[in-house]
Amino acid sequence: MSGASARLRFAPSPNGRLHLGHAYSALLNARIASDLGGLCLLRIEDIDPARSRAEFTHGIVSDLAWLGLSYRQPVRQQSQHMSEYRAARDQLAAADFAYPCFCSRSEIRARSCACDPDGAPLYPGTCRSLDPRETEARRERGEPHTWRLDMARALPQAQASDELGFFAFERGDERWCPVDPAPWGDAVIARRDVPTSYHLAVVHDDALEGITHVVRGADLEAATALHVVLQRLLGLPTPRYHHHGLIEDEEGRKLAKSRGSPSLAFLREAGTTPCEIRARLGF
């Protein structure tokens, strides 16, 4: 797909300042959108109320402008659209593809003997077979709960039309990539504190914004299998995907806010120019 119909997005979370890895992804999205003659949008993925901060959102906008990137306004902020994600969650629940889970993280760790593709304890399905009356009673009492995808029910529906997979693209070439979402098990689609998860919000927003090409880091490639399932269940299109390599530090670890990787703001204050950043990242 090319021309004005091509739409990409750069979608950071405002839980810290951008670093070189974010800069690479933002610049790559912009370049591919330009090559396709399309448009790249900015989205602020701020569903985490504990970690998202307005000052980081302002910092993201400032850093991107400093790099020479501009985006169509208004920019979508996920925190302002919780009712939409709740409706998507309820759609899955009404079709018996999702159920409430009352288990704590410690309970899941104690009962799990495997991990999902993110390395988290694989949910053992404790609440999947709860009596509906007990489930409703516990919800009415206000017991904290997440919502989980019932993978055993979801897969037959998702696979009903054809093979599960997506088209991966790179430099004009495309190839079909079949996926197997089963290793994710009954993944969380809505958290205790908000009516969504990253997975549910991102597939909803990609469809809503007409995203045709998703360009994101290789660390999210495994999640694409889960996203394809959610897209099928919700009747949403599956974009083309490109999972780019990650920018690493001197020890070969991917850059991360949690490890204190130097931010673009730090580099700016140290006198680094946007041209130097672009050259360092191959742009």
UniProtKB/TrEMBL annotation:
Its EC number is 6.1.1.-. This is tRNA glutamyl-Q(34) synthetase GluQRS. InterPro entries: aa-tRNA-synth_I_CS (IPR001412), Glu/Gln-tRNA-synth (IPR000924), Glu/Gln-tRNA-synth_Ib_cat-dom (IPR020058), GluQ/Sye (IPR049940), Rossmann-like_a/b/a_fold (IPR014729). The keyword Translocase does not apply. Belongs to the class-I aminoacyl-tRNA synthetase family. The gene is gluQRS. It comes from Methylobacterium komagatae. Coiled coil: none annotated. Residues 7-265 form the Glutamyl/glutaminyl-tRNA synthetase class Ib catalytic domain. It comes from the Bacteria.
